[in-house]
Request: fold
Amino acid sequence: MTSSTFPPHSSVFKTHIRVVAALTIREMTTRYGRKIGGYFWAILDPVAFIGLMSIVFSSVSHTPPIGRSFMLFYATGYLSFWIYRTLAEQTSTAVKFNKSLLTYPVVTPYDAVLARAALQIVTQFIVCTIIFGGMAFFITPFPSIDFANLMGATIVATGLGFGIGLLNTTLFNLSGLYERIFTIANRPLFLISGVFFLPDSIPTPYRDYLLWNPIVHIIGWFRRAFYPAYRAAYVDETWLISLAFGSTLAGLVLLKIFGTRLRESE
Reply:
């Protein structure tokens, strides 16, 4: 058998790039419509939440747990959580959403996952840039930003969200029971991840239990970038990176093993 029997690697790669690009455009028009107003709602949701929380908590307290701006405190907490949550949610349903397209041999489950993840990452970047840029320009100028911590926390939040979503892409399709259990267990995550409080204020041993939640570490790492005096000594960067890498690797392996089954399942 000669090498000409198989298509060149560059040709296969270009085909996947074109497929992912087409799926991304399809995702964009389906989720946001063909008008710029669709993106407006993606921005309005986190802005409305941050504004509401700032108004509510500023009415019962003179200062936030750290710094002087309630809006900045809740923006750093909510958006870092939002990056993880939305990417995990969107990625986990990528195969289910594109099930009809997987009947075409050229479209693989990997393409569907990458397309959804790519669109969500771009959306997150635009939303976070607009929100933090608008806050800095119109409301509360930031004293300084540690871009190393900002990039580190953002990359890990993105990696963990993608990894968990990639795992759930397969596991949700294999077991409806697991999907229900995961959804129920995930509901209180927003309240116990440090969006509204600092883990430093929680007494032991409850703080030790809380720190098993990786999102607590991500939010603490993210807040370091905007609060130079906040050390967040509880943040375990190595553990977070290991979780993000491990979940992504495990998700890729599961998708490889069960890829054919995902194509054929109803």
